[in-house]
Design a protein that fits this description.
heterodimer; A: about 250 residues; alpha/beta; 6-stranded mixed beta sheet; 4-stranded antiparallel beta sheet; 9 helices; 10 strands; globular; B: about 240 residues; mainly alpha; about 0% strand; flat; binds adenosine-5'-diphosphate; binds magnesium ion
Chain lengths: ~250, ~240
């Protein structure tokens, strides 16, 4: 079964439960019956209370679930028309050239001992030529406001700087789709403005973007807001079409 | 302006030397002093190491500060050995202490350089990159572990556990209460980071490119050859 040509990532009747931790404790599924189609070149904002499964959904869209994180799952995930969740021939590594993922916690993503080396980490893994890596690394260092810190050890950066470094590391890989898990949690007002501008640029560059963000009003230019609760999709529509009454609920904040 | 301070420290001396002569120094010095039991020979190797530090412009006070604890440990081992083995053991104790000193000083020379350069050097020396990265990821966790320990320590003190006032048994129990959450936290971070690395394409391709490339200058090549040669030559001079 193939998906339409204009869809990048799609989940069909997708449910997922993490492996049980304690003895005999049955978990409720982290995701239940998710049907979501993300169009090529669109911007999607994922909103929902803490613990509702946003990060888990991101992990499914990148293939990390079920390739790296095991659990019980039903349903399918399609990327570029190909089912990936049940196809062992598809690896996370192969998907990484297509889909970039910025983790919620920058410390979990930063590996190298110098800012420039960390930004270069992804492109180096993809075996891009050194000169090309150098120029995209330099571009990200200046875009992310890290000028003069190329050789700094990331452990000496502030929270906001680490978050910008994590962003730069994925942007330097220049994937067709990018998924950002709460990318602005450590950014100041200026950083937030810059980030939203960056997202608009990505859209005009034809990139597909998914952003998990509590402050969804900042992304009124998004194609879709997707509201989640208790592992389920409540509503997915253009911002203007979502009933105000639904948005006024404090739970989304 | 690109980080004036760090560039200043880097310029000249040991810090501007390629990592490969330093790795060669480490390997050849420790091999040489393990193979020989001759005190003048090991002392000669030690002199070469000290000269390297001094001529290389290392701040000796900083170096001594870094290795102070190890020096004390070596001194203590020496004293203990001579007490238990008497005068017969003196020679053996001296050899052992000098050997340890060589390893410690060679490590101090390695510390006059950046971890990222050693990583790159190892990769350029055709070491499998997965192995080289395992080292760097390990190093990456040390400061995290330390920060976590400080956090948990502060937290436990806030809960009213004053470590200094506890008896030894209670202290041990409190420390194990400290270690478990640190270990759990570190494991979780290691797990999350390994996932994030794969999502950034780690091991996705048959190989890996490097943005930077280290190149050896004349001095670096000469030093790489100089160290093993001088350690062997010292052997010929003192051992017959
Ligand atoms: N690695 C994991 N193992 C087990 N349970 C997890 C894991 N990650 C998240 N969960 C659980 O899954 C649920 C959804 O979490 P998550 O996707 O992180 O939510 P959100 O990102 O919306 O805050 C939560 O109940 C959380 O405790
Ligand atoms: Mg989350």
């Amino acid at each position: 079964m193939k998906t339409d040509d204009h869809i990048f990532i799609e989940t069909r009747n997708f449910s997922f439960s993490y492996p049980p931790t304690g003895k005999g404790t049955e978990r409720r599924p982290a995701l239940a019956d998710i049907n979501l189609a993300i169009e090529i070149g669109s911007i999607t904002v994922l909103v929902g209370p803490s613990g509702c499964g946003k990060t888990t959904l991101c992990r499914c869209l990148t293939g990390a679930i079920p390739k790296l994180i095991k659990g019980t799952l039903t349903g399918e995930v399609y990327i570029g028309g190909r089912e990936i969740a049940h196809d062992d021939a598809v690896t996370v590594g192969a998907l990484s050239a297509q889909i970039g993922f910025v983790t919620q916690e920058p410390d979990h993503q930063i590996v190298m001992t110098a800012v420039e080396d960390d930004i270069a980490f992804g492109p180096e893994n993809l075996m891009k030529p050194p000169a090309a890596i150098r120029s995209s690394v330099d571009a990200q260092i200046s875009n992310m406001g890290l000028a003069g810190k190329a050789e700094t050890n990331p452990s000496a950066l502030s929270g906001g700087e680490k978050q910008r470094l994590a962003l730069g590391g994925i942007l330097a890989m220049n994937p067709e789709a990018m998924i950002f898990d709460e990318p602005m949690s450590n950014l100041d007002a200026d950083g937030r403005t810059r980030f939203t501008r960056r997202i608009k640029e990505l859209k005009s560059g034809g990139r597909t973007v998914v952003i998990v963000e509590h402050d969804f009003e900042l992304f009124d230019f998004a194609d879709r807001w997707v509201l989640m609760k208790d592992g389920r999709l409540i509503c997915a529509d253009a911002p203007a079409n979502i009933p105000r009454s639904l948005l006024e609920d404090e739970l989304w904040r | 302006m690109t980080g004036g301070a760090s560039n200043h420290v880097k310029s000249g001396g040991l810090r501007s030397i390629d990592p490969r002569p330093k790795l060669m120094l480490m390997v050849s010095a420790s091999t040489a002093c393990m193979l020989t039991g001759n005190i003048p020979h090991i002392a000669g190797i030690l002199c070469v190491l000290i000269l390297t530090l001094v001529v290389g412009g290392a701040d000796m006070l900083v170096v001594l500060g870094r290795i102070r604890a190890l020096l004390l440990l070596i001194a203590a081992l020496f004293v203990i050995q001579t007490i238990f083995a008497g005068m017969d053991g003196l020679l053996l104790a001296a050899v052992l202490s000098l050997r340890l000193l060589v390893v410690v000083l060679a490590a101090a020379i390695l510390l006059e350089g950046e971890i990222r350069d050693y990583l790159l050097a190892l990769v350029q020396m055709k070491l499998p990159y997965e192995l080289a990265f395992a080292v760097i990821v390990g190093l990456h966790f040390l400061p995290i572990l330390r920060d976590e320990a400080v956090n948990i320590y502060c937290y436990m003190q806030l809960r009213g556990k004053d470590f200094k006032k506890l008896g030894i048994a209670k202290k041990l129990r409190a420390y194990s209460g400290l270690c478990l959450p640190i270990l759990a936290g570190a494991l979780r971070r290691a797990y999350e980071t390994s996932i994030a690395m794969d999502l950034r394409g780690f091991r996705a391709m048959p190989g890996r490119t490097s943005m930077r490339r280290l190149s050896m200058r004349g001095t670096d090549v000469i030093l790489t050859i100089f160290y093993p040669v001088i350690f062997i030559a010292l052997g010929f001079i003192f051992v017959r």
